[in-house]
């Protein structure tokens, strides 16, 4: 084999000459269509530097005549990629062709020992993996996902001892999956999902170094059979954080996962697993587990009390679980118990606490209603109907998630009227008949409960009828109503009688859209109990915040302070606008015109201008800046900030919770992790603003896990990594690159990225808001 490769390389060298430029020009010949002219118009043999490096060749990084990197991501290129042509690039360490239309096979990929990063994902490459892959001995990152590869995997990975990231998902690879794991060394991320792999999943037989290093393992949507870890019991997966074996043919009991202390996400849905629920995963001792999906199996037995403080999402629907619903659910936010044989009275839900956002109980044998005194579910709407299960009463509760993306048909969704994630909740269900929901509002309980009959989250839909979200207003208000705007004429009685509609829930509380008899529409935030300061101090701080006025702020109009701690409301105008989060991630679904490069720059400048006002004129940080707290009005695209400086009204515990929430979403500055009592600051605002800039540029969510590379998980780390590799152009959203005219938009994006990278520097090196605003204004004026 080695002799054959030497002969091929000799032929290539004779045909192409010895220069890296010749290799690139040969590669160029295979490109049949370049819709944006990125390669065909810039790869010119006459455009060379003095050291024989390409000058302004798109996607090429070169030093002293040696091509180091080829990055052609999202360029829309069509043609057959000539792997043999680049065989002479002896210093090439990066080859990235993400999201093009390249065809051909990898049969002639050469033994490029310098290559560390190979990403061919989202193309139309075919054929099998060649044995010559074993010669790519320096590979750290390998992504062949979403192509048309097939065949078995040759014995190549045992020599790729530096490999950390492997993604083959979305192909037609086949063979015994354990043949791959036997070869693995100290890899961190393995995704083999959506292929045709077979065999058993017996990791106890794999390499010890693989077991101790693996963090992310996805083998879902294959044809795996047998029991999980049958040979030697549960292996010691010391660092495993995510394990997904959904949609296979696994049988037997679910292992305890007792010693997998880092496990955050466990998905074993759509298999044939039997036995009882693994109680250890539902207990406080489950360590850091946050998501557990065991749906669509054959599990039996009772559901014990759930005491885990970390579990947020639990789906055990479509099994054969029986007995009453659990008395406790810990800190779960999303619970799906539908399509089982649960029985008893659903009043036990009153003990579940106020963490729950979505509940699915449909297609069971439950009876009863929620007691009137239950107050933790004030955001729910109820109806009851008969089902086909032996004509038993099915009660299904869906507490409407408050994310903007869950309310597709509401006309205005300010981020102050949203939750803390901005994410679509996949378990929300659509009622079978929205008219039934409308006709049965307000029945049986002061709190509203929406019942849906769709039993499985895998077929879930969004609500189609906004009226189904209507809820009762709070009970009669008997406390003190303070108004800061003389133009607002309102009494506590009028406020308590106003029809209210839940439109959001955040770490601060629940947000209502309240319509007064006069037609004035308000946003009323009911603050969570236990997070605000004492009544007198709270009133003083809210009044101070009410004096802050700026054209880009949704200012506070007033507050209501009742005799009890949970009776505290803050009032502002309801804005007919979508959040920046919606514009970036759901514009197509909402029929919104996407933000252009110039519009994104304008948003950045206006947000910076408002923050500069808060910092310099009021000497106060916003404290909770994120894309869901930035509004863009239509049609004039005015930019507004909401939820400003609410840390001033919170207890230390409430402030800590707000900061933890910001951390989970990717907005918390690194210095807060080292502080015992972190508090929002001007510097932390600058960091959060830098993250918002990165969202504007990349179109990605701030806390999204965007890479499996060691140490690169969040948006900020991903961008830093690409910038350090000289591949910063990969940070930009595809549509911004495709729709550009000339170099102007590219320059704007590049300059905005430079500002963003400075904003996320360590606190001591981070610029102030004045510098950031000036830099962005200069970009806009140039």
UniProtKB/TrEMBL annotation:
Q: From the Swiss-Prot or TrEMBL record, what is one GO molecular function term?
A: ATP binding
Keywords (A to Z) from UniProt: ATP-binding, Cell wall, Disulfide bond, Leucine-rich repeat, Membrane, Nucleotide-binding, Phosphoprotein, Plant defense, Receptor, Repeat, Secreted, Signal, Transmembrane, Transmembrane helix
Query: Basic and acidic residues bias located where?
Result: 430-441
Region Disordered, as annotated, extends over 383-471
Signal peptide bounds: 1-17
Q: How does it sit in the membrane?
A: Peripheral membrane protein; Single-pass membrane protein
Q: Where is the composition biased (Polar residues)?
A: 390-407, 414-426, 442-471
Give the family from UniProt. Belongs to the polygalacturonase-inhibiting protein family.
Official protein name in the record? Protein kinase domain-containing protein
User: What organism is the protein native to?
Assistant: Trifolium subterraneum (Subterranean clover)
């Amino acid at each position: 084999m080695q002799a054959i490769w030497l002969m091929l390389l000799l032929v290539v060298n004779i045909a192409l000459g010895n220069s890296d430029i010749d290799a690139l020009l040969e590669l160029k010949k295979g490109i049949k269509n370049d819709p944006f002219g990125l390669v065909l118009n810039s790869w010119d043999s006459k455009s060379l530097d003095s050291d024989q490096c390409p000058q302004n060749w798109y996607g090429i990084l070169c030093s002293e005549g040696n091509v180091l990197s080829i990055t052609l991501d999202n360029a829309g290129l069509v043609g057959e990629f000539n792997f043999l042509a680049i065989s002479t690039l002896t210093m090439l360490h990066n080859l990235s062709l993400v999201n093009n239309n390249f065809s051909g096979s990898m049969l002639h990929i050469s033994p490029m020992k310098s290559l560390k990063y190979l990403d061919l994902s989202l193309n139309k490459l075919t054929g099998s993996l060649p044995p010559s892959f074993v010669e790519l001995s320096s590979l750290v990152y390998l992504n062949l996902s979403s192509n048309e590869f097939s065949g078995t995997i040759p014995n190549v990975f045992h020599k790729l001892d530096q490999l950390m990231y492997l993604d083959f998902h979305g192909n037609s690879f086949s063979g015994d999956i354990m043949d791959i794991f036997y070869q693995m060394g100290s890899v961190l991320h393995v995704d083999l999902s959506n292929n045709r792999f077979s065999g058993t999943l017996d990791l106890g037989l794999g390499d010890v170094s693989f077991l101790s290093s693996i963090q992310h393992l996805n083998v879902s949507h294959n044809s795996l059979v047998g029991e999980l870890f049958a040979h030697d019991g549960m292996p010691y997966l010391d660092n495993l954080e995510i394990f997904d074996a959904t949609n296979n043919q696994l049988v037997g009991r679910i292992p305890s996962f007792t010693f997998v202390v880092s496990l955050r996400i466990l998905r074993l849905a759509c298999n044939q697993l039997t036995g009882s629920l693994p109680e250890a995963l539902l207990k406080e001792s489950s360590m850091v587990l946050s998501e557990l999906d065991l749906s669509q199996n054959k599990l039996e037995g009772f559901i014990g009390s759930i005491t885990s403080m970390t579990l947020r999402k639990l789906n055990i629907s479509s099994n054969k679980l029986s007995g009453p619903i659990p008395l406790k659910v810990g800190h779960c936010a999303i619970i799906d118990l539908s399509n089982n044989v649960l029985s008893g009275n659903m009043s036990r839900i009153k003990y579940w606490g106020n963490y729950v956002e979505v509940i699915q109980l449909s297609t069971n044998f439950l009876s009863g209603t929620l007691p009137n005194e239950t107050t933790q579910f004030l955001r729910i709407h109820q109806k009851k109907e008969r089902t086909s299960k032996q004509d038993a009463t099915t009660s299904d509760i869906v507490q409407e998630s408050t994310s903007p993306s869950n309310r597709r048909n509401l006309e205005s969704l300010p981020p102050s009227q949203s939750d803390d994630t901005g994410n679509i909740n996949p378990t929300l269900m659509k009622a079978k008949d929205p008219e039934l929901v409308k006709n049965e509002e307000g029945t049986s309980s002061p709190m509203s409960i929406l019942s849906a009959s769709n039993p499985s989250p895998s077929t879930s839909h969004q609500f189609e009828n906004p009226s189904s979200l209507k809820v009762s207003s709070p009970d009669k208000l008997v406390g003190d109503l303070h108004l800061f705007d003389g133009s607002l004429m309102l009494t506590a009685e009028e406020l308590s009688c106003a029809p209210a509609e839940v439109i959001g829930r955040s770490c601060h509380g629940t947000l209502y859209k309240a319509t007064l008899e006069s037609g004035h529409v308000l946003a009323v935030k009911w603050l969570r109990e236990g997070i605000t300061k004492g009544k007198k101090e709270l009133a003083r701080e809210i009044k101070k915040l009410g004096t802050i006025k700026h054209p880009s702020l949704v200012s506070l109009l007033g507050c209501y302070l009742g005799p009890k701690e949970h009776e505290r409301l803050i009032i502002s105008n309801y804005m007919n606008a979508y959040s920046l989060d919606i514009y970036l991630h759901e514009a197509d679904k909402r029929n919104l015109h996407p933000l252009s490069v110039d519009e994104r720059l304008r948003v950045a400048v206006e947000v910076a201008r408002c923050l500069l006002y808060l910092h310099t004129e009021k000497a106060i940080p916003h404290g909770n800046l994120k894309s869901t707290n930035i509004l863009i009005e239509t049609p004039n695209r005015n930019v507004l900030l909401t939820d400003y400086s609410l840390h001033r009204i919170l207890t230390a515990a409430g402030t800590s919770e707000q900061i933890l929430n910001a951390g989970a979403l990717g907005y918390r500055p690194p210095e807060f992790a080292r502080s015992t009592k972190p508090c929002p600051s001007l510097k932390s605002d600058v960091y959060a603003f830098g993250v918002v800039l990165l969202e504007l540029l990349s179109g990605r969510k701030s806390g999204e896990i965007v890479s499996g590379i060691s140490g690169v998980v969040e948006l900020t780390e991903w961008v830093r990594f690409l910038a350090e590799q000289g591949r910063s152009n990969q940070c930009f959203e595809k549509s911004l690159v495709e729709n550009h005219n000339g170099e102007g938009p590219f320059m704007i994006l590049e300059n905005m990225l430079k500002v963003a990278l400075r904003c996320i520097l360590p606190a001591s090196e981070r610029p102030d808001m004045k510098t950031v605003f000036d830099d962005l204004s200069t970009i806009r004026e140039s």
